Fold these 3 entries.
Entry 1:
Amino acid sequence: MIAYLLRRILYAIPILIGVNLLTFALFFVVNTPDDMARMQLGIKRVTTEAIELWKAERGYDKPLLFNAGAQGASRLTETIFFEKSVRLFVFDFGQADDKRDIAHEIRNRMWPSLAVALPVFLVGIAVNITFALLMAFFRASYIDFWGVVLCVAMMSISTLFYIISGQFFASKLWRLVPISGYDGGLDAARFVILPVLIGVVSGIGSGARWYRTVFLEEIGKDYVRTARAKGLAETTVLFRHVLKNGMIPILTGAVAQIPLLFLGSLLAESFFGIPGLGSYTIDAIGSQDFAVVRSMVFLGSVLYIIGLILTDISYTLVDPRVRFG
Amino acid sequence: MIVLLWTDALLWVLVALVAGYFWLVHRREHLAAPWRRVAQSPAGMMALVVLGAYVLVGLADSLHFRPRLEPGGKGNGPAYSVEVLSVLDVALAPLRMRTETTYSEPLATRAYARETVDLGGGRVTREFPRLRFGGALLAREQDRGRDIAARVLRGIGVGVVIWLALAAALVGVFAARSTGGPGTLPRWHDRWRAVWGGQTRVAWRGFLAAGAALSVLVCVVASLAQGYHVLGTDKVGLDVLYLSLKSVRTGLMIGALTTLVMLPFAVLLGIMAGYFRGWVDDIIQYLYTTLNSIPGVLLIAAAVLMMQVQIDTHPDLFPTSAQRADLRLLFLCVILGLTNWTGLARLLRGETLKLRELEFIQAAQAFGVGHGRIITRHVLPNVMHLVIIALVMDFSGLVLAEAVLSYVGVGVDPSMISFGTMINAARLEIAREPLVWWVLAAAFVFMFVLVLAANLFADAVRDAFDPRVRVGGFTETAPA
């Protein structure tokens, strides 16, 4: 187990290097720092001095890969590649373009993100399983048919619609919750409840439909027939046997998403003014703060890889037939 | 002067490819069989009618030209307007030209905001001014309700007539084909009953039902649109119906062109990884794990931001703003394609791994058939169903993604009309009092119908092509 884990972690390193090279190529080779500076300072009427100053303030005034002017090892370290890309590996994110410390921001903004994303994740799974079991219980009847139709219809509605209409009805028309904002401590609940509700509702369509397939696949298996043959009631079969076995693909599929919950949701956070990592990313994209976008790309891929490893571990935990090779 | 935008050209290439594919399918029974099953599904046929209507609008909007200006100068050859128009723009010229000054409600005769009106003689008053075009044909404003009712009835009448003609033509053609050989035509009554009872091999009943709804709706809207702004006007007074119809092309483009970009990567790399295994497999797997590990929106955002820098620093490359917006749309499709091929590639790799161990491929290898030939003749036809399923399943997600990306600020060019830009512009108005709801409603409804039709069609295609569905009864694939 330990050896397997170590191997998986080692395997993650080349992937992270790949991500890093890709972002480096995107951010520094396709466009030079000069282009970025001109973009930030306005395309027209920008002096060379202003560009040089902008670059120097942010540490973009070094050569890309090889600093011929420096001595010894600093020939490689005094470069944009080393300072901006390699340092990400030790989670040294550096400064944003507005000179704030990115790592500090990430640490602060992680929790509001989690306060929305975690309830959406947990409640979402519970609600989707409930609906899916209901459809599976009444399979091949009108309830099942219209349930699937409803799921397909809900899948076809844009998330933006759920958010905008939710905000309009719950906050503006009925004045149940504040329209946007965030507060620390228990007060957060007031602000979080609507985004969570909308997050859950917008996920029902695809989630419940997928889980229904999982359950129906289980229902077709031999052990279910055996359970029915020995005289168990349909509800017992469904809750005792089908639900338990159906949970295996559902949970292992969900585990991969857990680390990514830290990143929060781009849309919900920016609509509801929650100061999480999602709105941080949107703001960075809006103000073209490349340092932040670069850091979030790296952080996102690290979390994704952790999710992959967690998935593999969860397979062995829930299904004893799976062994690490 | 005809302007061939990049996306137009690629879309027409795609249309040609699809047409070629169906010509090929038509001649081969084993390829045609699953499509025949799609045609059997009523939901699939209904969705097809709706999708067909959207595609027609999109294609009409993909023939661009620059109108010739009135000859004013001397001997410099014909001058062309910088404005790029499409065939759809010409067809909808009344809608496009009839702009008001600001918001107006659907079917309204007066504007939505008070304006200062000069009554002459130094007296002014603040009132809701009459619209320039909405209800301008009315002699008295009080007649609005009656006029609208008359127009609706006229629209329904025309729609029903068109539909009846369509149904009659269909029943005639269907009967001629179903009985094989002239002279033995069944009576009209029997043919009609077969269609109506749903006993035909193709689900014509669903086709006709959707056709009826569509033709009546289109006729009613067309009849109303001659006198009113059916869906109201937006902030700068543009007709919302026109904006919605223009958005269709953008949505379709994103769905279709992304597919075109993604396909070669997914098919080639996926099959190569599964077929050659070893280091080829390692490299390809590494490639798609790396791409996959970057959260999709962030990768798209990073790439689009970089493209934006390129476009902004080289403004001289684009003669018209339409061409700039078009190139941005193309790049967006390319970027979406480059981030989207991994799912299908992984699926194809797994399937090819299984296939290459089967006897017929082992036999081909033993006979010394080359790798390229084995892949094209033996592997590719046997994974085609996966490719087709993945393509139709991805489409609806891409249309939805466009709106979200435009909100994030990494979508299509702000000057390009799309569902995303419409929603984005109207979303702040929700805070206004009184409420401006029609722009959002129009964008969401148009998008919902398109995506729903695409989803239903995708389901029909998957049910017809997925071998597991036929054998096991209940199996569906997980959403990607």
Entry 2:
Amino acid sequence: MGTNNFDCVVIGAGHAGIEAAHAAARIGAKTALITIDKNKIGAMSCNPAIGGLAKGQIVREVDALGGLMGLATDATGIQFRMLNRSKGPAVQSPRAQADKYRYQQFMISALEQTPNLTIIEQMAVEIVVENGRVVGVRCKDGWVCDTKTVIVATGTFLRGLMHIGQESFEGGRRGEPASDDLSVCLERLGLVVKRLKTGTPPRLDARTIDYDKLEAQHGDKEPAPFSFMNDRIDRPQIPCWITYTNEKIHKIIRDNLDRAPLYTGQIKSTGPRYCPSIETKIIRFADRERHQVFLEPEELEQKVIYCNGISTSLPKDVQDEIIRNLPGCENAGIVHYGYAIEYDYCPPVQLKNNLETKKIAGLFLAGQINGTSGYEEAAGQGIIAGINAVRFLQGAEPIVLGRDQAYIGVMIDDLLTKGLGIEGVGIPDEPYRMFTSRAEYRLSLRSDNADRRLTAVGKSAGLVDNSRWERFQKKLNDIELLREYLAKNKRDGVSLWEQLRRPNSPLAPVLAELPEIKDAGFSSEVIGAAVIDAKYEGYLVKQERLAAGLQAWDKKQIPADLDYNAITHLRPEAKEKLTLFRPQTLGQAGRISGITPADVTVIQIHLKKYYQEIR
Amino acid sequence: MYKLNDTITAISSPSNDHRVIVRLAGPQTLDILGHICTSFVADKTGITTCRISDINLDAIVYLFRQPHSYTGDDLAEIHLWANQAITEALMEKLLSLGARTASAGEFTARAYLNNKIDLAQAEAVNEVITASNTFQLAAAENLLAGRLGCLSKTIRESILDLLSRLEANLDFSTEDIAPANKADIIAKLNETKSQLKDLLAGSIRSESTLDLPAVGIAGTPNAGKSTLLNKLLGRQRSIVSHQRKTTRDVLTGELELPGCRCILFDCAGLLTHAETILDELAQQAAIEAIRNAMVVVFCVDISKSDWAEDIAIRRLINPAHLITIATKTDLLSEKGTAERLSKLKSLFGCDFLPVSAHSDTGIDKLKAEITTRLITTTSGHTKDAVALTTRHRQSLNNAIHDIIQAEKEIKAGSEELAAMMLRTAYNQLSNIEQHNIDEQVLDRIFSRFCIGK
């Protein structure tokens, strides 16, 4: 290594840590990535898939900013599907099954080739802080490095506690140790730490499954790449398989609930409502005769199958029984049993909008430690934390994506204002997952325009290289040319653009076939972009009204030490909430539930006085 | 949440004044004026006389260009002579063009933030904002508990329900859940739309005096009816004199009571024998008005000695709710009043409430009595009607429009656009800002559908 002096140290090499370390190093910071096991970099602890509804948009956003997730998925995907293809473009999302081992290999080699980045195989146990600022990281064997910034991206490893039946054991992930020391350290630094729960299903030996009994689910004939840099996917595609649980399985589960840690009190924290265990599904939806199970290959060679739909922490013998009664899997061998895991997270109200903790300067948190769920959500936070750690070092303004700019912006703002982990005030205690319905600017935050939304941001952060920028400029230029053409040229007295604006425009599907368009050589992405722009143009005004244009409020900063109790005209409820959330901007303040526009006006007037006094 | 720099409007003249001043401030001021005024020269600062096309009235517009205005924004004051109905029609037009109703103190808050006034002035306004915020939250709570609240809550619930079905189709389409049935959704949308229309149709237009419950003041000539009316309304409405029969026409005024409003009318003296044609016409008008009244306050002058005419007139009218009062008690001693009250009781067969408009005796009791009668009244449509402000009505109209639009989008297969329309409709119907609509929708989805692979 030669040195132990870094600008930025990233702890954890999962989906958040990868993007954070890659971004920081690429922008130019001397970066260390500390991981317990180098071979587990980019591991998919849960299902071997990237993207999905709303998440696919996030992957495209990470890609547009200059991240790795999209490139890795394109290079290792084994089944690509565009979800919601029959619905509006705003809610279409790419999803892919990835070959999880090749995905890890891709990430390892991408990180190894990243300049300024050192991968260190260690277990970090302490963040060294002096005078409220990060100064170093100490590892288990005593090795210490100096750094001005730390990004903690430890996933489920902090005080990870796994459950299979009545058995529970410490660990961050199957076969890997938990990291308790770091949790203790965070608490000692004054951060509040709470618990969340998630779970995974059993994995089966792919060779022991009877595929003749199963329904196949194939990918798209023309797979759409995630990354703006890729035109197409040439890799071989393989199907997933669908089977269903049945009454017999449900009975087995019901008969064994007294051994289900979720129902015996053994697991204390709450799991996500959008991803319940099979035992929860059977209890909560007792009238359902069957539940769908997707059998998803974890790699191209199909050695291991992931049973998407039966996440469980029931005892091993019960899991055996379930699989024995699952059509197509009667003779299947279980490679790994399903388990539930409880882990520590830091309620994200403790963060600033650059993902730095409010308490410790230079300490950033990204991924599941902030109470989120999902690889994509983690990657989105990772890249922003990486960028902002460097900006912190440079003394530059942080890059904060707006709610109107990116799902990543919606996510981080939600984390700061929805009160996850604040009892009685916030949203339900469950890992935060992105849904398109969370975005009030949904029509603008599409997977097809992530490049147009964020490439310039990635460029200003220093993450977008020339080849991407030039390619992007060409696309922008082409869209503009096409738009002009469509606006100028008429058919039956109506401009082509106007015709495209109509609902279910008959012109939209055949636009690419018009001879003059064909001759001009526009790419299908460019034509698609123009068609979608036209379709939604008229609705954007309405969207603006709905979202109430909060940009102006988001620019109004609130000092971190503002004493809300001293603002005489503020309602007691507002004082209490604002003291709890300590919003950074008036926009954030206004989005806290229970804070009225009048409260915001009162703060605004107070702030003006405040600034006059300190001047 | 509202924008920092949008265009706000408010009526800034006293409500009982017929010279109306409507203020408009913000970046859209010039645009909006251009829309409502014929021959408005947009960049002209100062005073312009123009015609407001929609309400067909002349107005004087004082335009102040930014930053030389009270708030520092482009600001206009529209001065016109109009009644409340016309003023509210103008407000509706302004709102539909993109202005927003200013909240209490907002013009001044802007003035302070734009460096137009100093802090001392702003602090005073802060009081107003706080008080009004507390008041509005309390009012919103009352409203939620009241009939309008119940109705709009039911409608909001059905919108959330529809929204959760649509959003489940969008966010959880890969799950094994039954897709929302298009025909079902459309049927439910129509149902919601007609609920909204009923609410709108059944509501009292607060400025439409015809729809307010009427309370008549009846009695013999010079029984003190006009004095009482003026006392109750708190201003001079009819000419009062000691000469008999000074009030010729049915005169009306709007009376604000705790929890309800009504139209109070004083009528031409009822006579047992009309002396002139004019008397006869006045008499007919009075009887007609009393027939439409929900409550009649029957006045008897307690200071006179002969009540034969009063008894005759009392027989002419037969209202659903009658409140009998003895007026001019200030002219008698306490003892005298008591004696005469019992005499009146034996003559008319009912209790009389002693009242004096001059000494304020019994006025509050009378108001309370009117309120009770109005609230308990079982006839007429007030039972089902709810009073709406301009803003509420505008919101209901917008919501109906949004739902019609949502239906179109569903038919065109654009669920994401229909969902957006339903969200705006929902927001229109929310009294307090709803920040957590997505959480509410998700709650419904998770409780209804088995989500999760």
Entry 3:
Amino acid sequence: MDLLTSIGAIDTSDVEAFMKFWFTGTGAILGLVLAAEILIRLFSWIGDRNTPGRKRLISKDAPANFVLALHAFIIEGAVGLAAEGGAAYAGASISHWHIPFNGYTIIFYFLAAEFYHYIYHRLGHEVRILWADHSIHHSSRDYEFFTSWRLTPGTWIYKVATIMPIAMLGFGPVGLLLMAKSISFQTFIHTQRIGRLGWFDQVFCSPANHSIHHACNARYIDKNYGGGTMIWDQFFGTFILPGEEKIKFGITRDVGSHNPFKIWSFEFGHLIRDAWHAPTLKDKLVVLFGRPGETYSFKPKAPTADDLSDLEPGLVAAE
Amino acid sequence: MDHNALNLAYSVILAFTFLTTLHFSVTGQVESPNPVIRIFTNRNWFYPLIIAGPYMLGAFYFGAISPWPPEAFEAARAKAGLWAGVATALAAATADIWLFWATATVFRRFAPPSEQRFVKYYYLANLAVGIYLMARFSHLIDLGAAPVRQH
């Protein structure tokens, strides 16, 4: 199968060969780029050995990112992939339509997979209980290749809820999942080495526009959800390009720790505390399913004079 | 549109991609100050690489296309005609340049001033990776994948 007959072909076997080559090649490029990044850092680190305050070889967050990647891979492998695939299969099974996966329809599969990514990703940002999970990915103050490995344990839950209705439109589970997995190559764009890329930034997911997505500056929050392209962001009005403002990476409420368990439990802790203290059942539900930053937020009361009178005089003075 | 016309179109596009890659590799600049050369070497000609770059690497890996452009040309021409051969050879040659040299140029272009003194190592690393992969694709080093198919 040569390049041209593959691209020009319309039957499924050619599309499969094309996908096999393309995914293998992209995986190889990803590996090479990561290797290059590590080598460059190593050269700089060794070269700067006599420079005071030299940059760290790996960021303080990197070990936690590796632990979080490992735990997410285990969960994805154990239940996530099966649940996502099962939901796609169930959706396609009960659908009245079936869209074949071939050279003519591959673009529709790609757009459907992009839409799938856009929706579940946006849910992860805009529903607080899901944000407690997804914020793990965003909580690093760095933005580099290894930040993309700061994966979360529960993404598969909202993936399942999103993929089923899309599969019900007639998209076959294999084609849809294959296209959706192209998001795995997003590691490439988690870098500050590459600057603006002209019109590419307007259409495709790029280092510049994805860096905005990881920023916690007020004007950049909840923007640029796209996985491979910016098509759905442009369509739904969530697209933005970097401005003059310096990008501040991370989340508005900083975790302030490199301990993976603390990173993992940080927003869940705030969520449980706020839901527990919310005064009414409605408030509790809004805490769980409302938009982050707009729900009830528990503020510990300042101690009263009566509270302080119980303390020993020396301690009060210390306060 | 028949395949021959489609292959001719691919050949034209990939010829520009090849020229832009070559120009970038030699000069380190995407767009030339010379207006005539600028027509043939424009950053937009890199975009076919999103599809063709990974595809060629995968095809090299599985032995479907030879990384040696004349061999890639012969195989594709025999199967799908002259323009299929031209396009495949151009895509193979472009992928080869990236494997050996052009990738380091990208890193050089975006390297901060503090890293400029390490640029020569980027090229050494790129060359080493390219030589390793070529040896791998040609089965001088065999890690168990299928050999390059004899057409």
